[in-house]
Structures are given as structure tokens and as C-alpha cells.
Design goal:
GO terms for molecular function: DNA binding. Residues 11-63 form the HTH cro/C1-type domain. InterPro entries: Cro/C1-type_HTH, Lambda_DNA-bd_dom_sf. Pfam families: HTH_3 (PF01381). By secondary structure, the chain is mainly α. It has helices at 3-17, 31-38, 46-56, 60-69, 72-95. Helix 1 (3-17) crosses helix 4 and helix 4 packs across helix 5 (72-95). The longest helix is centred in the C-terminal third of the chain and has 24 residues, at 72-95. The chain is elongated. The chain starts with a helix and ends with a helix.
């Protein structure tokens, strides 16, 4: 599944899991725009993603991890990979 499509699905899943209506995002987004995101018609900027996640009380990385990882095992593997990549990049930058 493409990450973009997964982001739309993850956004809708988290919103519903939090018991939020699309109208609950009115301070940061119109209902029409949120609906467009959830139907994969538009893609949010990073700043907009952060605003949406603030309403849902989750970190933006959590939403992205759900989009890329899918299920719990996939998310665990993704988090492990990200941790390893960050360590490698930090180690590489320390030696430069």
C-alpha cells in the first residue's frame, strides 16, 4: 500500500478512534479539507499535519508510523529501523 493512501486511512482511523468528528478540527482545518485528506484527494503539509495531530493528541510521527507500518508488528519494525538509521546518521556525523 502506498504511504500516501495509508496516511489518509491512518488519519481517518485515528480521528475515529479518538471519537472526533471532522467538525472538531474547525480551529485548524475546514471539514471539507479534512474530508479531502481522508479520501486521499489532497496531501497535508508538515505544518498542517502537526496541527491535525495536535487536535487528535498524538505526535505526527505516530500518524506517519501508522501510515507506513500498518499493523502493530509493522510499526514495531518501522520504529526499530528508524532508531537504527538515526543512530547510524548520528555516528556518521560525529566522525565527519
Amino acid at each position: 500500500m502506498a504511504a500516501k493512501n495509508s496516511l489518509a486511512k491512518a488519519l481517518k482511523t485515528v480521528r475515529k478512534a479518538r471519537g472526533l468528528s471532522q467538525e472538531a478540527f474547525s480551529d485548524v482545518s475546514s471539514r471539507t479539507y479534512l474530508s479531502s485528506l481522508e479520501r486521499d484527494l489532497k496531501s497535508p503539509t508538515l505544518n498542517k499535519l502537526a496541527e491535525l495531530c495536535e487536535v487528535m493528541e498524538i505526535h505526527p510521527v505516530t500518524l506517519v508510523a501508522l501510515a507506513y507500518g500498518g499493523d502493530a508488528k509493522g510499526v514495531d519494525l518501522l520504529v526499530e529501523r528508524v532508531r537504527r538509521e538515526i543512530t547510524e546518521l548520528k555516528d556518521a556525523s560525529d566522525t565527519v
